Amino acid sequence: MQTWHRMVIILSSLVMLALAVFFFGLLMGQDPVNLTPVVTVDEAMNLYKFIGFTIFFIFFLLLATAGLSTKKPLRTIIHDTDLGEVRIAFTAVEDLALRAVDKIRGVKEAQVTVEADSNGLSFNVEIVSNPDLSIPQLTMDIRNKLAEYITETVGIPVVNSTVTVTRITSESRARVE
Amino acid sequence: MPEEFTLEPQWNEKNGSVRIANEVVGIIAGLAATEVKGVAGMSGGVVDGISELLKKKNLSKGVKVEVGEKEAAIDLYVVIEYGARIPEVAINIQENVKRTVEGMTGLKVVEVNVHVQGVQFHQEETGVPEKMESRVT
What we know:
By secondary structure, chain A is an alpha+beta fold. Chain A has helices spanning about 5-25, 45-70, 90-100, 135-155, and strands at about 75-80, 85-90, 105-115, 120-130, 160-170.
């Protein structure tokens, strides 16, 4: 959702809240904005005041929930085929990439994010590595295996992989069980 | 009567008309998709980045169907098994669904869109990772 869409929804929800407060005030026998000379307020119309309050309050809740929602649309990679489209969720590609990276000797933990453009996929890999390893060799292994595996399973070339070693674990790996 | 059971006219015959419910087409498509090798199941949607794998009885929930008088367009939300080649599996799904739906309903399937929502990792894959392999016997 674009920022200005969100702003409009939140502003609309505030208008609904103001109307709900107004009707609630009337229901309680108050006139919060002194509209009594303009709007006829009949003590016998409590049901209508209650309905007005309920409707505007529900609108406020719905709009506020929509405006403040942080749910992002599912990003996908699109292949066109003769019979239609094949859409692969980024989360699925990230899971596969994480699996491929995690299997490489020397990688203790990993986090992977993916971006796509018209040329192919770009990966940003952050790893925690085991000690006593050649980091240039490890990062080269990660790049090569990731590119090979993703191109084979997803069918889209990997144009760029950035590997960042965020930490080197101090725990030594057990050599025997 | 719920909306999903609304019957669409398919063809008029001398003795009346035959109608096929959208949900029936959905179930046929769902079953045809799940029998393809490499498909773990239908997806019920993505929550917090994790795709919900539907049980067999909920097959039509991972399927959206638009049925016209003679044609149908189908959207399938699937979870793929780890190790499968996604483009290959997706094309197999499209072909199998088109063939099965056309064969069973007589509708012309004009579009089968496959949405890969997630990957299922098998139990054995989560067992002993390559990097933990023992180097001594």
